[in-house]
């Protein structure tokens, strides 16, 4: 069941945090349940950490590509609301902030209130594979740092295409599957690479310790345990959108070496 709050006018339509999403047979219930329980409600990219400049660049590019002023925007997998709040602050007519977790949306709403843009945001729980919106409901759609967590990303991008109006814009990012970047931007991801050959129980214990507040600050990790995810190559990520029918106009790498791949374009 979808649940909306704020001023959402949509019509609803019908533990191991380190487990990776299987490319062949993902455990859909387990993956979705991890996020439904509010995995990202405390995620905060404003705190000092090695990827701060990368995150700032990603946010700037998203706002620039969406061109929010006067538009009805969908921010899919909004998390605590960083991009949705930026779009609203940049003059969007309305921003539908959608996430699978009510706890995460509550955090996003609180941040929107603090930023004094809550009246321009519509908060709604929803599954990215079955969005609770009519066809062509939005002028622009963003999906930032979320495709890496979708069990079936091709279904999610088809839903993005469905709810985007003709001529509407989109922007999305995904993590580079080549994790050479972890050595330049030390984080829990670096620890994961170092520990990949360890027995799962030992690996999880070490990463849990590394992501504790005291150790995280001392080691400048400051990111916490990673959620289920998959990385992409740029061509593979871009093909998701062209296969769904979008026109990809831009492919951009963020970070050196690339941490994220950004694609943007429009619906013909």
Explain what this protein looks like in three dimensions.
This protein is α/β, with parallel strands linked by helices and 268 residues long. The protein has 2 domains: 4-178 and 228-266, Vaccinia Virus protein VP39 (Rossmann fold); 182-219, no CATH class. Helices cover 34% and strands 19% of the residues. It has 9 helices and 8 strands. The protein has helices at residues 28-36, 52-66, 82-89, 102-114, 153-163, 188-194, 200-210, 213-219, 234-244, and strands at 4-6, 72-76, 94-99, 121-125, 138-143, 164-175, 247-254, 260-266. An 8-stranded mixed sheet has the order 1-4-3-2-5-6-8-7, sandwiched between helices. Helix 2 (52-66) packs across helix 3 and helix 5 (153-163) crosses helix 9. It is globular and about 50 Å long. Mean pLDDT is 83; it is low at 5-26 and 221-225.
Q: Would you tell me the structural class of the helices and strands?
A: alpha/beta
Tally of alpha and pi helices: 9
Shape, please? globular
- Output the CATH homologous superfamily of the largest domain: Vaccinia Virus protein VP39
Query: How many domains, in number, for the residues?
Result: 2
Reading the helices and strands in chain order gives EHHEHEHEEHEHHHHEE
In the predicted model, the low-confidence regions spanning at least 5 consecutive residues are: 5-26, 221-225
Give the DSSP E fraction (strand runs of 2 or more residues). 15-25%
Annotated CATH topology of the largest domain: Rossmann fold
Please give the radius of gyration in angstroms: 18 Å
| Distance, first to last CA | 32 Å
- Overall number of strands: 8
Level-1 CATH class name of the largest domain: Alpha Beta
| CATH level-two architecture of the largest domain | 3-Layer(aba) Sandwich
Mean pLDDT: 83
């Amino acid at each position: 069941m979808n649940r909306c709050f704020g001023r959402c006018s949509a019509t609803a339509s019908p533990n191991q945090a380190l487990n990776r999403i299987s490319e062949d047979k993902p455990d859909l219930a387990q993956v979705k349940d991890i996020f439904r329980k509010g995995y990202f409600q405390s995620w905060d990219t404003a705190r000092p950490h090695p990827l701060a400049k990368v995150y700032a660049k990603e946010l700037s590019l998203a706002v620039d590509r969406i061109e929010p002023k006067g538009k009805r925007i969908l921010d899919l997998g909004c998390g605590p609301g960083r991009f949705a709040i930026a779009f609203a602050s940049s003059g969007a007519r309305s921003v539908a902030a959608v996430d699978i977790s009510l706890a995460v949306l509550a955090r996003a709403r609180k941040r929107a209130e603090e930023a004094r843009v809550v009246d321009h945001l519509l908060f709604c729980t929803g599954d990215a594979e079955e969005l609770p919106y009519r066809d062509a409901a939005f002028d622009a759609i963003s999906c930032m740092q979320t495709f890496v967590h979708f069990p079936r990303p091709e279904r999610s991008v088809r839903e993005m295409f469905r709810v985007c109006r003709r001529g509407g814009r989109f922007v999305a990012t995904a993590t580079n599957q080549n994790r050479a970047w972890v050595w330049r931007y030390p984080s829990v991801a670096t620890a994961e690479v170092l520990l990949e050959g360890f027995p799962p129980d030992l690996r999880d214990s070490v990463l849990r310790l590394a992501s504790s507040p005291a150790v995280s600050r001392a080691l400048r990790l400051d990111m916490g345990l990673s959620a289920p995810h998959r990385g992409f190559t740029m061509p593979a990520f871009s093909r998701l959108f062209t296969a769904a029918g979008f026109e990809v106009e831009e492919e951009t790498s963020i970070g050196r070496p690339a941490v994220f791949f950004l694609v943007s374009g429009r619906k013909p």
